[in-house]
């Protein structure tokens, strides 16, 4: 909110009555503050200014300034402490911990994402959605940012610490901090994260050493044992040969090396293993492919531009490639159902989906003889039988042409529009049935193996797969409505993460309390469809309300980009 400069509207001294009201509001909002703390924060005799400002996005904010430092700000009738106040009273708010480099992102206007939260031994603080909370860095209890929780602590844990955690309003080094004396944060030792920063620094040093001495085997062995490195080299070669032999086609050449790795090699990795080039002796894909070209003569790689390479030729007659036999392990491609599922949990089975119809108030007279009242749920065959019985019992079949049914007053009121009252005297049987079903309330029934049927109103929602742009040239794939089919979004997220080797996250669906969407980096529509097809999410013959996917023929999949 204060990442950019704001405009001051007014600056006045607070009145005595407003001072007492402010002190009462602070006591209510922050009950952990003692009476002495309140007296220091809102002194009775010292000058306290009320500054009304407009943030760069137009939000009206009220600041309370003491000794030239903003101590509180009020937004939409909610009080928030500034970092100046939190440095004096760090215990006021529940506080999340993050790494020092994240602070710069927060000051630039970013929110705190849960993957960037450092979880101490005591766990994350307990908060509810919308609660005011603070953000600090490891090894220092002095808060560096203030915001509101986007979800409860229980939801954060259930989502596997993925997604947006804190909506940041104010940070150290932003324009609100610059409105004060611009003093720096104090150093307050943090017992909860003691040792975490040392681990972080050691990891950074190891990464720097690894980059600086990429070709030095002694450095590599410092981080990964020779056995693990040899195993990763063997796995890399196996996936490479399997991808060339069973995945890549001549028509696909030339093929970008990045696409070859992401689409073909990762999908050949056996289940239970993870392909990580950084843990191999090659460290980079370009070096591995260079070895495959020079020492094995399997491919020819050409550099299109700086940092962009393409496989332009494959030696299909190479003895090493021809003698390679695909391992029996089906890999992630066929065993992806197992990924992300807890040990001992039953395998996923798709539900049986049946289209049903409910008697509406307008059609109740038509179903009265069959003793079907408003709200009764029927299958299409039952509706057809009831309508046929009604027509025959009332002798409405046209004697001259038995393909037509004569319209009586009840059929007229139930099925015809007002403009048709004087024009339509008879309907064909098919038209009669279709009009009846159209006027009824659509429902659907889900039957999961071993569970009682679930009947819901309306059409069943298809699995929605969409591709959105993030930033200038980045794309993300989002999948919604997985819960409708009994799919665990977390399991789908983990399976996709292993399949495409890209980061994924779970985010709440706007406007829905109990649903989340899976978000994964890149355009992964094809991979998502293959995964769901492997889980046998298809459309039963009895269900005729869903749209087939034009990309993958997945009948419950709606593609938009």
Explain the overall architecture.
- The protein is built from 18 helices and 25 strands.
- The protein is α+β, with helices and mostly antiparallel strands.
- The model is unreliable at 197-223, 330-345 and 538-561 (pLDDT under 50).
- This is Eukaryotic translation initiation factor 2D.
List the helices and strands and how they pair.
Elements lengths: L6 E7 L2 H14 L5 H7 L6 E7 L5 E7 L2 E7 L2 E4 L1 H6 L6 E4 L1 H8 L4 E2 L3 E2 L13 E6 L7 E5 L3 H6 L5 E8 L3 H4 L17 H17 L4 H7 L2 H21 L8 E2 H9 L19 H10 L4 E7 L2 E7 L4 H5 L7 H5 L16 E7 L18 E2 L1 H14 L10 E3 L2 H7 L10 E3 H11 L1 E7 L6 E4 L5 E8 L3 E7 L8 H12 L3 E5 L7 E6 L3 H10 L22 E4 L1
Parallel strand pairs: 6-9, 21-25
Antiparallel strand pairs: 1-2, 2-3, 3-4, 4-5, 6-8, 7-11, 9-10, 10-11, 12-14, 13-14, 15-16, 15-19, 17-18, 19-20, 21-22, 22-24, 23-24
Arrangement of strands in the largest sheet = 7-11-10-9-6-8
- The N- and C-terminal alpha carbons lie at a distance of 31 Å
Q: How would the global form be characterised?
A: flat
Return the average pLDDT rounded to an integer. Answer: 80
């Amino acid at each position: 909110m204060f990442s950019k400069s704001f405009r001051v509207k007014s600056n006045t001294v607070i009145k005595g009555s407003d001072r007492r009201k402010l002190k009462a509001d602070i006591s209510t909002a922050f009950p952990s503050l003692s009476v002495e703390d309140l007296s220091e924060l809102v002194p009775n005799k010292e000058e306290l200014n009320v500054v009304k400002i407009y943030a760069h996005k137009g939000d009206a904010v009220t600041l309370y300034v003491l000794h030239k430092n903003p101590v509180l700000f009020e937004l939409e009738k909610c009080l928030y402490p500034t970092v100046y106040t939190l440095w004096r009273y760090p215990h006021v708010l529940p506080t999340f911990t993050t790494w020092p480099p994240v602070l710069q992102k927060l000051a630039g206007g970013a929110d705190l994402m849960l993957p960037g939260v450092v979880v101490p031994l005591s766990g994350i603080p307990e908060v509810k959605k919308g609660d005011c909370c603070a953000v600090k860095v490891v090894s220092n209890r002095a808060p560096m940012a203030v915001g509101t929780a986007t979800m409860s602590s229980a939801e954060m844990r259930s989502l596997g610490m993925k997604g947006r955690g804190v909506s940041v309003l104010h940070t150290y080094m932003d324009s609100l901090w610059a409105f004060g004396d611009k003093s720096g944060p104090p150093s307050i030792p943090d017992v909860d994260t003691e040792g975490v920063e040392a681990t972080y620094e050691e990891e950074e040093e190891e990464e720097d050493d690894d980059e600086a001495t990429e070709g030095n085997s002694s450095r590599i062995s410092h981080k990964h044992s020779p056995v693990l490195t040899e195993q990763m080299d063997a796995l890399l070669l196996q996936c490479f040969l399997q991808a060339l032999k069973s995945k890549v086609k001549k028509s696909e050449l030339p093929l970008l090396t990045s696409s070859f790795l992401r689409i073909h090699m990762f999908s050949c990795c056996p289940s239970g293993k993870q392909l990580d080039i950084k843990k191999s002796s090659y460290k980079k894909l370009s070096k591995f492919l260079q070895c495959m070209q020079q020492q094995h003569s399997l491919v020819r790689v050409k550099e299109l531009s700086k940092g962009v390479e393409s496989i332009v030729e494959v030696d299909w007659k190479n003895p090493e490639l021809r003698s390679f036999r695909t391992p029996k392990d089906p890999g992630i491609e066929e065993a992806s159902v197992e990924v992300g599922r807890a040990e001992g949990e039953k395998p996923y089975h798709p539900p049986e989906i049946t289209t049903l119809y409910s008697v509406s108030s307008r059609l109740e007279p038509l179903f009265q003889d069959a003793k079907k009242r408003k709200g009764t749920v029927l299958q299409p065959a039952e509706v057809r039988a009831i309508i046929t019985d009604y027509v025959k019992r009332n002798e409405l079949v046209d004697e001259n042409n038995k393909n037509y049914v004569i319209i009586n007053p009840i059929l007229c009121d139930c099925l015809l529009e007002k403009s048709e009252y004087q024009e339509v005297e008879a309907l064909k049987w098919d038209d009669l049935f279709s009009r009846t079903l159209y006027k009824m309330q659509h429902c659907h029934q889900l039957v999961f193996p071993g569970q009682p049927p679930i009947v819901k109103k309306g059409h069943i929602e298809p699995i929605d797969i969409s591709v959105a742009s993030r930033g200038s040239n980045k794309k993300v794939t989002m999948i919604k409505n997985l819960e409708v089919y009994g799919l665990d979004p977390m399991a789908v997220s983990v399976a996709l993460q292993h399949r495409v080797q890209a980061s994924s996250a779970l985010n709440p669906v706007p406007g829905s309390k109990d649903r989340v969407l899976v978000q994964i980096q890149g355009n992964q529509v094809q991979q998502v469809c293959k995964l769901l097809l492997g889980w046998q999410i298809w459309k039963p013959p009895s269900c005729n309300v869903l749209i087939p996917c034009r990309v993958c023929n997945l009948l419950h999949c709606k593609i938009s980009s």
